[in-house]
Amino acid sequence: MASTYVRALTLSHFRSHKRAAMVLDGRPVALFGPNGAGKTNILEAVSLLSPGRGLRRAAAEEMARRPEALGWKIKAELITGGRFHELEMGAEAGQSRSLRIDGKPEPQLSLAGLTRIVWLIPAQDRLWIEGAEGRRRFLDRITMSFSPEHGDAVLTHEKAMRERNRMLKDQVRDATWYAAVEAQMAEAAARIVAHRSKAVARLAAAQEGAETAFPVAALQLVEAEGSEGLTTAEAFASAHALSRPRDLAAGRSLIGPHRSDLGAIYAAKQTEARLCSTGEQKALLISLILANARALKAETGAAPLVLLDEIAAHLDVARRAALFDEICALGGQAWMTGTGPELFAELGDRAQYFEITETDGHSSVTQTGTDR
Question: Which residues pair with 78 in a beta bridge?
Fold first, then answer.
């Protein structure tokens, strides 16, 4: 079974890294060093090898090293499906991000055909107790890993909805104007619902019967009032037309996938995720990321790249060892960060180790050996 991994990574003026170069062999990658040294910046660079704005959702100008602000560049050698690809992306000062694949300019969506990447970062730890927007974004990221075209559906829906909301705020009453925009929204909404439903089903299948130390999370799509049961473009278009008086009063669109939520239950305890302990909530998130990776491997034949920021610090030794065993069993390349090498002791020679240090605002990357 062909694997997908980054064979080499070079950063230039990216975040805290003036220059960093890493040579890799496909094994899991353990990055360790003090907080603020630049470990997450490396994970962010890897996350940009898939469509989207990366794990921090940052704008291109935010990624440039300060105070120079000269622009930044990432080069990666990628092995996928037994084939080699050279990726180069970056942004000059004041310019948007550009991408070249094997020397040719390409749109960001082209990355979907090369890499599938899943990640878990500390900012997601409060996913189950904060607002629905973060859960939608979490689900959409997972959904895009299965259906890369989902991103286009979301963008199309958002663009059409902004236009409809503008008309609602301006108290436009012409039904003809609304009908055209609502048709675009409805078609995109139907695709979004279908993609999300398939993603939830795939996660459920990947969790069912899996031997894992992490709890099963039973997921459910929760639709807002008025959106229940809507699955087709025709149904959404009809619902938008009927909802216009209510939407005019609110000044915004009240029906559609932009108001969906993701519900989760700790299956073994039949307890809603939001009511679980902090440790249980973290374990549920890890379970979903691992299920996402297993499902992608079953579907595509190759494990995705897995990015886990500060993952080891929140787990006891037994569960940490179990996590590493599951990652290695996937057979893909996982990138993990932690404050010290002792957090990765259970990996042994199954991983590559890099120490990240910071001096006067400049990050350095040093490989420390593979037999720690």
Answer: 6, 85
